[in-house]
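Please, structure for the following, as tokens.
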Amino acid sequence: MRIGEIAALVGVTTRAIRHYHHVGLLPEPERRPNGYRAYSVRDAVLLARVRRLTELGLSLDEVRDVLADDAGRELADVLEELDADLARQQAEIGERRRRLAVLLAAPPGEAEPLSPALAGLLAKAPPTASPSAAKDREHLTLLDATGFGGEELYAALGPLAADPAVLALYERLDELADAAADDPRIPALAAELIAAVPDEVFAAVPAEGAVVPGFKEALLAEFAPAQAEVVRRVMEAFMERGRG
């Protein structure tokens, strides 16, 4: 293959290929008598590997390290890994399209970037003007967008979302908006919130942890001091029981 052909096959530009040659990521192939580079199937596989790794966010130096580890592998092994990468990418695209379908089906002005499972969960919650309940909805939406939700977790949360008694707990959390971080109401409210969470919810927490890295700090910063202390205790219970 000539450079234009391999570029079209892999989906990169000829300029990118020349840059990969320049920085040593892609070895220069042999040239034909007419001076044109002659690329092989292995060159195409290597180029596809470079493209996929850069799409995943690796720097060129990191890509070079990965390729160095691949040097002694059989071509079939590398092809199988590329195929698995493409399958994962295809699944991700499918999930995005399903979410888009939910947005397209929603009435104008009501569309939110929610997975169907989370949309079903939130539909079970009774209407409320509670600011704390609204924040909880926003936090679930963020976790859903980052992939830390899931149908199992949302199914477990279903009875909790539909329970009117939970609204009373949200309202008690609202009442702490102007309270100090050592308010005597904090321990009891935190304990009741933790007790209200079904065991199935803790069991459905992903194995990698109950919270996205950095999420806990960002979430607590949105609350007043007393509210943040309640939420901190609840989150610590999630992290502890989620690990169990």
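The domain at 3-72 is CATH 1.10.1660.10 (Multidrug-efflux Transporter Regulator; Chain: A; Domain 2). The chain has 13 helices and no strands.
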